[in-house]
């Protein structure tokens, strides 16, 4: 019985360390946009903020879901709230921020607008690393 309990505890600890989720704040490498307050909501939801969207300080709320890979790692799929009202397309976009430090943004029809890599942000406020937003 003791061996089984020890085995289960070891497996649980290994699984917990394998769940390397996306950090709570990331910058899109080479772009002025970044994400803050990325968090899980319950068992399947996710939320956060898309910051400096237009390189001039515009910010939007994000809501979506957690997506997990076969390895048990977590990524986020977010829809935007309010972006359509200010963007020339008049449509929202969907972000996929993956735990392998990559991201993709899709238009309202599911077409890839852009993709790239992200880096963890340790200190805010952030000095943007790029001069253009990822969606334009």
Automatic annotation (TrEMBL):
Q: What residue range is the signal peptide?
A: 1-20
- Keyword Signal on entry: yes
Question: Keyword annotations for this protein?
Answer: Signal
Domain of life from the UniProt record: Bacteria
What's the protein name?
Transglutaminase
Q: Which organism is it from?
A: Ideonella azotifigens
């Amino acid at each position: 019985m003791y061996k089984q309990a020890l085995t289960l505890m070891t497996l649980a600890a290994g699984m917990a360390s394998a769940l390397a989720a996306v950090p709570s704040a990331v910058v899109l490498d080479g772009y002025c946009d970044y994400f803050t307050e990325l968090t899980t909501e319950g068992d399947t939801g996710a939320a956060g903020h898309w910051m400096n969207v237009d390189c001039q300080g515009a910010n939007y709320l994000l809501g979506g879901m957690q997506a997990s890979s076969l390895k048990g790692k977590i990524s986020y799929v977010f829809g935007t709230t309010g972006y359509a009202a200010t963007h020339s397309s008049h449509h929202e976009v969907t972000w996929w921020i993956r735990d392998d430090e990559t991201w993709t943004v899709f238009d309202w029809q599911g077409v890839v607008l852009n993709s790239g890599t992200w880096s963890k942000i340790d200190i805010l406020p952030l000095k943007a690393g790029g001069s253009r937003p990822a969606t334009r």
